[in-house]
Design brief:
four-stranded antiparallel sheet; 6 strands; single chain; two-stranded antiparallel sheet; Alpha-Beta Plaits; alpha+beta
């Protein structure tokens, strides 16, 4: 399973609309759109999980595609390092 980062989403995007867009390129296992913790408003990015072959096709086909007047940034998600609080120097 490959996790795909989808950035520059219009704030009107829904999980269903993102799932429909990616479903054209393979089976979508999961869609997660990120919202602000305090306000609950969309942050303009999310993640889609697909099989590796489907993910590669989707990334190639959808990176830069216009959705709601905004060019999408689509690439394989990078794991964020887990750890304690940020260091202060």
């Amino acid at each position: 399973m490959t996790r795909i980062y989808v950035g520059n989403l219009p704030f009107s995007a829904t999980e269903d609309s993102v799932r429909a867009l990616f479903s054209k390129h393979g089976t979508v296992e999961k869609v997660s759109l990120i919202t602000d913790r305090d306000t609950g408003r969309p942050r303009g990015f999310g993640f889609v999980e697909m099989s590796s072959a489907d993910a590669a096709r989707a990334i190639q086909a959808l990176n830069g595609v216009d959705l709601g007047g905004r060019p999408l940034r689509v690439n394989e998600a990078q794991e964020r390092p887990r750890g304690g609080p940020p260091r202060r120097f």
